[in-house]
Design brief:
The structure is a single chain. This protein has about 350 residues and is an alpha/beta fold. It folds into two domains: about 190 residues, P-loop containing nucleotide triphosphate hydrolases (Rossmann fold), CATH 3.40.50; about 110 residues, Helicase, Ruva Protein, domain 3 (Orthogonal Bundle). Helices cover about 45% and strands about 15% of the residues. It contains 14 helices and eleven strands. A hairpin with a 2-residue loop joins strand 6 and strand 7. Helix 2 crosses helix 4. The radius of gyration is 21 Å and the shape is globular. The relative contact order is 0.15.
């Protein structure tokens, strides 16, 4: 890219990303100890992806999504998934109007800018599929009538890792539709003290001020698409994705010849799909945008790789026997591959 073009791009991205700092500050005024989760939520918004979150109850997931929607002046909906939930409870249904003797469409809660799908693995497969269709196609078909999702549209789906009895695990093909899978742990002591100080009041009602607009997200997506990713960065992303696939190591680029990844074939049952490379590229560009940069650096790719890949790699029997997780496998790949 010509230096003058890069400078012009840098100026545009600096201006377009100006809303990020006040957005973080305002959400942080209410929420404490979840900075990483907040950053990934914003990243998913500007990269037009969805988030699958795995964490124990009580980590302020609902508060985060609701507060972020308030700060963006967007709509928020929370759907509690249960075994008796029906697809119509999510996307909506046709209601008979006795006064006019006609059927009218009543939209479901999924028609919101930010949707919290709480404990998605507690609902049957047909309900999960209804939500995932909305996520992928950005539309829902109700009684033959198609309605578009609002824009921006982000789904944060949660899974409880400690209660798996009576659940309906998401198939790998459906999990692959999430851009990120995040693992959220307890906050540290200082952050948890802030949580107690802020929230341990019976009649407390915290509400975020509107510091940004939904149009800022739409504008940001336009600039994220323009962020410069060098050919070497794209080859590096492709090498990472190919390295997760058993039997495909020979397809690594020439500069990666000789890396010690042959033993991964015995540890990985299934690797990442082509959708992973797309998500990794978009997420890396989004990371650069959040930093106010007009170009992607290798560290952007390394920062987002675990969140993009952990749900797209299925460890094999030998890995499970040795307690090797998908995160361990991703770490090995990132450590072995040469950085451009």
């Amino acid at each position: 890219m010509v230096q003058e073009d890069l400078q012009k791009l840098q100026e545009g991205i600096t201006e377009a990303s100006a809303f990020i700092k006040p957005l973080r500050t305002e959400v942080g005024r209410i929420l404490a100890g979840q900075e990483t989760l907040l950053n990934r939520m914003i990243l998913a918004l500007i990269a037009d992806g969805h988030v699958l979150l795995e964490g124990v109850p009580g980590l302020a997931k609902t508060l985060l999504v609701k507060t972020l929607a308030q700060a963006l002046d967007g709509s928020f909906a929370r759907i509690q998934f249960t075994p008796d939930l029906l697809p119509a409870d999510v996307v909506g249904t046709m209601i008979y109007n006795q006064n006019e003797h006609t059927f009218q469409l009543k939209q479901g809660p999924v028609f919101a800018n930010l949707v919290l799908a709480d404990e998605i693995n507690r609902a049957p497969a047909k309900v999960q599929s209804a939500l995932l269709e909305c996520m992928q196609e950005r539309q829902a078909t109700i009684a033959g009538e198609t309605r578009k999702m609002p824009s921006p549209f982000l789904v944060l789906a949660t899974q409880n890792p400690i209660e798996q009895e009576g659940t309906y695990p998401l198939p790998e093909a459906q999990v692959d539709r999430f851009m990120f899978k995040l693992k959220v742990d307890y906050p540290d002591r200082n952050a948890e003290r802030q949580v107690i100080d802020r929230m341990a009041h019976p009649h407390l009602e915290l509400k975020a001020m509107n510091v940004a607009k939904l149009s800022d997200i739409e504008n940001a997506r336009t600039w994220v698409d323009k962020v410069y990713a060098d050919e070497k960065i794209l080859e590096y992303i492709l090498d990472i994705v190919i390295a997760t696939r058993p039997g495909h190591i020979a397809q690594l680029s020439d500069r990666q010849r000789g890396v010690k990844l042959n033993d991964l074939g015995e540890l990985i049952q299934f690797g990442a799909s082509p959708r992973a490379g797309i998500a990794l590229t978009l997420a890396a560009k989004g990371m650069a945008f959040l930093e106010g940069r007009a170009y992607v650096v290798p560290q952007d790719v390394k920062d987002v790789a675990p969140d993009v890949l952990r749900h797209r790699i299925i460890p094999g029997y030998e890995a499970e026997a040795e307690n090797i997780t998908s995160d361990d496998l991703i770490g090995k790949i990132l450590n072995e591959l040469r950085i451009p």
